[in-house]
Design brief:
The chain has a five-stranded antiparallel beta sheet, with no helix packed on it. Strands 11, 12, 13, 14 and 15 form a five-stranded antiparallel beta sheet that branches. It has a four-stranded antiparallel beta sheet with strand order 3-6-5-4, with no helix packed on it. The protein starts with 9 loop residues before the first helix and ends with a strand. The protein has one helix at 10-16, and strands spanning 43-46, 75-77, 84-85, 103-106, 109-112, 118-120, 126-131, 134-140, 148-154, 160-166, 169-176, 179-185, 195-204, 212-215, 220-221, 227-232, 238-244, 251-256, 262-267, 273-274, 278-282, 296-300, 306-310, 319-327, 330-338, 344-351, 358-365, 372-374, 383-388, 396-402, 408-415, 419-422, 425-428. It is mainly beta. The chain has a domain at 10-43 and 62-316: Methylamine Dehydrogenase, Chain H (7 Propeller), CATH 2.130.10. A hairpin with a 2-residue loop joins strand 11 (169-176) and strand 12.
Length: 430
């Protein structure tokens, strides 16, 4: 299959400068956004719908899923307008039990790692997040007004169980604790120019729920481009709602998923990953490039106090990290370590959140073997998923590193969907 290009994730947005998304359209980014105070433009409806059209019989018949990349050229078809479900579901060999219930997504398609189950949304929708049997996607408002519609669907059927009509653009959203959380910017935001915070919102995925503002919208920010991003802790019990920019007008709102309380607002930080008590960031503010010269610092999530730094000051020019992940009770970081003007090692290491104690898990000489790189969106507490360095899509063969032992299984499993769709059309096995 001819794969569409790899999507940008919220963490990648932080690395590549999420504020540059300020000049894009509402659905250019896979992240979601909220609505604003003093307006009645947020309408939440949560009602299980058993409409027969949720899985239309007119959908194209799905191709039999494969477990190895199909070398045949893909066949393009028009943009998808209805729900599409892969009915030919089989186990995906080589996926460990800890990863089986994880999801992959790209464009308008989402699937499971452990099986070939796949849900295709109308091409006008962009998948933002999937968890716990739910998929949340964003689309342009059907009434033509500025803003974004969020729709939550059941993964198994595609049935819409909740829709939220917001006045936010450039949204980011997460499913956690049986609720939908989202954030974003007001549509009058300009890049460069004045930007307006859209706040942080939540909607319960139960009948009769209505949207609630956890952080009130409306604050104006001048002087740069700004964007909102959500981070979810490794336990999925804490959310960090980031306001990111290119100056010191940045902060993180810390929200408890269970109580919905805002625990803290920590200023002048731009976390890459977080546990329930610690967050970790590269010391360089979000930018369009990665370069040595800065370390990374872990902070106390309650008050922003420094816990530890890495590496020592003498080695800063040798160090450049990406990505930084919170997996289980540890941070797992892939970083470049320069040994000489011509030699660089790529190292994957686990760090204790409280002490900074480091365990090296995997390494390679980048000047000799460009090998594998971390696929953070597929990784989980016990396993890191890696892909060939030249890969740029969800389509491919992936390797697995076990975090507890450092054991690497090359070419462990393959993802080769029978179709992938964008708003321009669909790529299908021929």
């Amino acid at each position: 299959m001819k794969p569409p290009s790899r999507p940008t994730s919220p963490l990648a947005l932080l690395v590549a400068g999420i504020v540059l998304a300020g000049c894009t359209s509402p659905l250019d980014s896979p992240s979601p956004a909220p609505a604003s105070a003093g307006q009645t433009t947020v309408a939440g409806t949560v009602a299980p719908t058993a409409a027969p059209s949720a899985v239309p019989s007119s959908s194209p018949a799905p191709a039999l899923p494969t477990v190895a990349p199909d070398p045949a050229p893909a066949v393009t078809s028009p943009p998808r307008t209805e729900i599409e479900i892969n009915a030919n579901v089989v186990d995906r060999p080589g996926v460990p039990a800890a990863l089986r219930d994880n999801y992959w997504w790209t464009g308008s398609d989402v699937g499971l790692l452990g099986t070939t189950a796949q849900l295709g949304l109308p091409s006008s929708e962009r998948v933002i997040h999937a968890a716990d049997g739910f998929v949340v996607a964003g689309r342009a408002r059907s009434d033509g007004e500025p803003g974004t519609e969020l729709v939550v669907r059941r993964f198994e059927t595609g049935t819409a169980i909740a829709e939220v009509h917001t006045v936010q653009v450039r949204l980011d959203a997460r499913i956690a604790g049986g609720r939908l959380f989202w954030t974003g910017m007001r549509p009058e935001s300009r890049c460069p120019g004045v930007s307006v915070d859209g706040g942080v919102w939540v909607l319960g995925l139960t009948l009769g729920s209505v949207p609630i503002a956890l952080v009130e919208p409306g604050r104006s920010l001048d002087g740069s481009c700004y964007g909102r991003v959500l981070l979810l802790s490794s336990s999925r019990q804490t959310i960090g709602a980031l306001m990111s920019g290119h100056d010191n007008k940045v902060w993180m709102d810390v929200i408890d998923v269970a109580s919905l309380g805002r625990e803290a607002r920590i200023r002048n930080v731009w976390p890459w990953a977080m546990t329930d008590d610690t967050f970790l960031q590269w010391d360089e503010q979000p930018s369009d490039f990665m370069a040595p010269g800065r370390g990374m610092t872990a902070f106390d999530l309650a008050n922003g106090d420094v816990r530890w730094r890495f590496p020592d000051s003498a080695d800063l020019d040798r160090f450049a990290p990406y990505p930084i992940m919170a997996l289980g009770s540890e941070f797992v970081v892939e970083y470049h370590w320069t040994r000489s003007t011509t030699d660089t090692d790529v190292i994957l290491a686990a760090f204790d959140p409280l002490t900074g104690e480091r365990r090296e898990l995997f390494g390679r000489d980048d000047s000799v073997d460009h090998g594998l790189r971390v696929r953070y969106d597929l990784s989980a507490e016990t396993h890191v998923v890696l892909e060939p360095a030249a890969s740029s899509s969800i389509v491919g063969t992936f390797s697995i590193l076990e975090v507890s032992t450092g054991n690497l299984t090359r070419n462990a499993f393959t993802i080769d969907p029978p179709w992938l769709c964008t708003d321009e059309g669909c790529f299908r096995d021929g």
